[in-house]
Amino acid sequence: MKASMVLSLIGCLVVPSGAAIMGRCKVAKKLYEGGLDYFEGYSLANWVCLAYFESKFNPTAIYENSPGGYTGYGLFQIRSPDWCDRGKNRCHMSCSALLNPDLKKTIECAKRIVKGKDGMGACLKVVGPYQAKQ
């Protein structure tokens, strides 16, 4: 009995505290509902894969890249120098709006980004298999 209590306590201690991390299916559902499936030629699988590799499905992730001079925000790690209020603000929103787990502002900004001539590569720095087929 004591051993199971100790194991239960240890299990609680090692569970990640990032309550904001979403499951793959939940991310896929929100991105689909937001109209990203085949938006500008990128499949839902491309978007889900991008979300995983950029933030591990954490919509509240913030990554400061000091040598690069930018901070990435949210599910897609959208860069501050160009897309939110700590830079050129091409998405016309605060960087903190990109940290909301409802993903509405994140999807809105991602759509604006991929409509540009460089697609996902414009801000999200995606290359290779994630590029839309011509």
UniProtKB/TrEMBL annotation:
<dbReference type="GO" id="GO:0036126">
    <property type="term" value="C:sperm flagellum"/>
</dbReference>
<dbReference type="GO" id="GO:0003796">
    <property type="term" value="F:lysozyme activity"/>
</dbReference>
<feature type="domain" description="Glycosyl hydrolases family 22 (GH22)">
    <location>
        <begin position="91"/>
        <end position="109"/>
    </location>
</feature>
<dbReference type="InterPro" id="IPR001916">
    <property type="entry name" value="Glyco_hydro_22"/>
</dbReference>
<dbReference type="GO" id="GO:0007342">
    <property type="term" value="P:fusion of sperm to egg plasma membrane involved in single fertilization"/>
</dbReference>
<dbReference type="InterPro" id="IPR000974">
    <property type="entry name" value="Glyco_hydro_22_lys"/>
</dbReference>
<dbReference type="InterPro" id="IPR019799">
    <property type="entry name" value="Glyco_hydro_22_CS"/>
</dbReference>
<feature type="signal peptide">
    <location>
        <begin position="1"/>
        <end position="19"/>
    </location>
</feature>
<protein>
    <submittedName>
        <fullName>Lysozyme-like protein 4</fullName>
    </submittedName>
</protein>
<dbReference type="InterPro" id="IPR023346">
    <property type="entry name" value="Lysozyme-like_dom_sf"/>
</dbReference>
<dbReference type="Pfam" id="PF00062">
    <property type="entry name" value="Lys"/>
</dbReference>
<comment type="similarity">
    <text>Belongs to the glycosyl hydrolase 22 family.</text>
</comment>
<keyword id="KW-0732">Signal</keyword>
<dbReference type="GO" id="GO:0001669">
    <property type="term" value="C:acrosomal vesicle"/>
</dbReference>
<keyword id="KW-1015">Disulfide bond</keyword>
